[in-house]
Structure formats: structure tokens, C-alpha cells
Amino acid sequence: MTGAGAAMRRVFTDMDRQALDPEQIEALAGLSARVRELVEAVVLTDVPVADIEAAADRIRAITEGLDFARRPAPPVADLDGGGIVRQLASPVTGPLNPIAPPIEMVALPDGTARTTFTLSPVYEGPPGFVHGGVSAMILDHLAGSAALLNGTPGMTASLELRYRRPTPHSVPLTAEAKTDRVEGRKTFVEARIFGADGRSTVEATAMFMMPTR
Predict the structure, then answer these.
(1) Which end of the chain is more exposed for a tag (fewer CB within 10 A), N or C?
(2) How far apart are CA 189 and CA 145, in angstroms?
(3) Is 68 helix (H, G, I), strand (E, B) or coil?
(4) What are the φ and ψ backbone dihedral angles of 114, each rounded to 5 degrees?
(5) What is the DSSP pairing of strand 172-183 with strand 106-107?
(6) CA 11 from chain center: how many Å?
(7) Which residues on neighbouring strands pair with residue 172, listed in sequence order?
(8) Which of 183, 92, 173 lies closest to 138, judged by CA?
């Protein structure tokens, strides 16, 4: 393992975080998927008020049952076999996090981090389009993965965004990121989101600073 890789591994694993067994992960991923469906149903429902209030009571009871025993922090993160950080509770890629789409990232042979995804209306900003902050979150995460794939990982120090056109939700989108250059402890990454026509909707330049310990 490189010194950079070891430094990032310490960032993600040196904290007192619990590791989950495969059965727990599968069960929690299923629960999170159902909660994502619930969130979209809440955003889009048009049922009578009495039904909404009854649903709120049922959800309160479920929440109390789940909250009976809880961990002090999200589960431990680690690197997957392809060099991407596996954060089960990430708000971008975490299968156990109901607010994550979630987005699945893959590493290409040339060091590009890439993902194809569809965002639901839950992530809407302007009518019909994705909230700009959601686009920024996705590109930040993807760019960080690209820096890691380059062997020069770090923490986000800056993120410059260029919104070329509105990003639609409810349609397939692609995002990709690749390291542009490295200057000492600084890694610069170019990233973008684009639609089926290949035109960028959002572009980003990110700079990551490698931890010193």
C-alpha cells in the first residue's frame, strides 16, 4: 500500500467504528430501499389528510422500534476491490443511507471514476431539474474517488462548479471524473455530469489535499 493509501485508510478506519456482517448489510440495505420509496411517496402523495396522519403514527412507531438499540456512529468504511472507498452510510453512494440515491461508482482502466444513475423527483430544485447542491455533492464524491484511484487521495480543499445547463431528474445521467494533475500534496480533478446527448450539465474542478498523518 502506498503512503497516500495508508494515510487515507487511517482517515476512514482508525475511528472506533463498527463493522457489519453480510446479513446485517443485506437487511439494512433492504430497509433503506423501502425508506427511499417512502420518501418519494411522501413527496408525491395526494392521499387524504387522515391517511397522512395515520401513516405518520405508524412511521413514528417504527422509528421508536429501530431507535431502541443504536450504534454511536455509522459503520466503518473501507476500500472495495476496485479501489473505490466503500462507505455503507455515505449520503451519495451508501446502500444503507436512505437519503443516498444511491449511486454506484466504477473504476475504469484509465483511472476514470464513472457512474450512470437516475435521480428521482426527491432531488428536485427548479421544477423538473436536479437541485444544484445535489449535483455538487455527486461530483465532489466522484472526484474524490478519482483522486484515490490516481494513488493521490485527499480531503476536499476546493470545489469549483460550472453549471452549463439544468440537470434533469427522472432520466438517465452519467458522471465521470479523472485526475488532471498533482502538485505536491494537492491533487486536481476534472469532473462532469452529462445526459444522453453527451452535453455537460455541470462541470467541476476539485482540489484535494492529502492528509499528513
Answers:
(1) C
(2) 10
(3) coil
(4) -140, 150
(5) unpaired
(6) 18
(7) 118
(8) 92
Question: Using an 8 Å Cβ cutoff, are 202 and 193 in contact?
Answer: yes
Identify the domain containing residue 118 by its residue range. 1-213
Cα gap 170→123, rounded to integer Å: 10
Among 134, 115, 114, residue whose Cα is nearest residue 123: 134
The pLDDT tens digits for 45-80 are 999 999 999 999 999 999 999 999 988 888 877 666
Q: 84: domain CATH number?
A: 3.10.129.10
pLDDT at 186 over 60: yes
Q: What is the spatial distance between Cα 84 and Cα 94, in angstroms, rounded to a whole number?
A: 12
**The dihedral of CA 78, 80, 31, 142: what is its sign?**
positive
Q: Is the peptide bond preceding residue 102 cis, with omega within 30 degrees of 0? A: yes
Parallel, antiparallel or unpaired: strands 186-194 and 200-209: antiparallel
Output the nine-digit C-alpha cell for 185.
500534496
CA distance 148 to 85: 8
* Total number of domains in the chain: 1
Instruction: Tell me the torsion sign for CA atoms 89, 94, 96, 99.
Output: positive
3-class secondary-structure state, position 181: strand
Residues 72-120 pLDDT 10s:
888 877 666 666 677 899 999 999 999 999 999 999 999 999 999 999 9
